[in-house]
Each structure stands twice: as structure tokens, then as C-alpha cells.
């Protein structure tokens, strides 16, 4: 018999082919099992890499925040409403030392959030230590359906450490004249 030739054996009416075909089928079965284990291992490795990327992303975000907004020079301005029913806020513009730093147009959803006691961060940035001037310009519709525009200024001194300033809007009955006040948080 020649090497590598197939040998056919007839057993009853069945024909059995032995040799390279049988070996090929066995190899393909083993490859299929190995491929399944490899795919599972690969999925596990991908999940681990995704977790590593998420951790690195968070670390990068924290580093970026500390570089862009170092706590020693950081200033943040927040907005709140005192009387929830007195004003329907349309817009707020914020100026720091005469330079516009923030402006916001309000949606119904944002107005509702503020009326429910929400606090909005209007601005976060850095300032050198010393004296500064903050100006807020707001437009709103009062509860008696009058449109109003108010400007208010606040002088403050930036000291080492984080500075937080609360801008509060109030409009009390019966005239619903808006009053803007500032408060520095310690």
C-alpha cells in the first residue's frame, strides 16, 4: 500500500474511511474547542481593559480639574431663588472684573428645578488673590407678569483657598420687585 493512501473497509453495508480524513475531523474538533476557550479568554481580557480605561479616564479628569482649577485660586458662583413663586427667570449674565464669564438662558425644566430649591453653578474659574468685582445681570418675568431686568454688583476679596459665592434672587408680593443678594460661603 502507498503511504498516505486511504484504506476503505466495508463492514456490512457501511463504508468506513480511515486515515487522513479521520485525523482531519479530529483536528477540526479540537480546534473548535480551543477556539471557544480562546474567545472566552479574549472576552475576559477586553472587559479588564475596559475597566482599566475607565479608571484612567477618571484619574485624567481629576488631574485636569486640579490643573485647570487649582483650589487655592478657585472661585465658584452659584444661583438660588429665595421666593419660589416670585420670578420666572429668563436669563442670567455674569461678569467678573468687567469681563463676561457666564450667561445662561433658562428652560421651563430648569426654572422648575430652581423653584423646587435647586442650586445652579453659574461659573467656576480661577482668580489671583486680591480685590475683585462680580456683576450679575438678570432678566425675568415677575409673578404679576411684568418683565424686569436687574443689575447687581458685589465686591469681594479673593483669599487663599476656594471661594464660593451664592447669588440669591428674591421677589416678594405684592409688587414682586426682584432683589439680588450675594453671600460668600466659608
How does this model look, in words?
- The chain is an alpha+beta fold and 186 residues long.
- Helices cover 31% and strands 45% of the residues.
- The strands form three sheets. The protein has a four-stranded mixed β-sheet, with no helix packed on it. It has a four-stranded antiparallel β-sheet with strand order 5-4-7-8, with no helix packed on it.
- The model has no long low-confidence stretch (mean pLDDT 82).
Cα shape: elongated
Oligomer: single chain
- The rounded Rg comes to 36 Å
In whole angstroms, the N-to-C terminal distance is 98 Å
Give me the secondary-structure topology.
Layout: E1 7-11, E2 14-18, H1 20-68, E3 74-81, E4 87-96, E5 99-105, H2 108-115, E6 120-126, E7 130-142, E8 147-158, E9 163-171, E10 178-185
Parallel strand pairs: 3-9
Antiparallel strand pairs: 1-2, 3-6, 4-5, 4-7, 7-8, 9-10
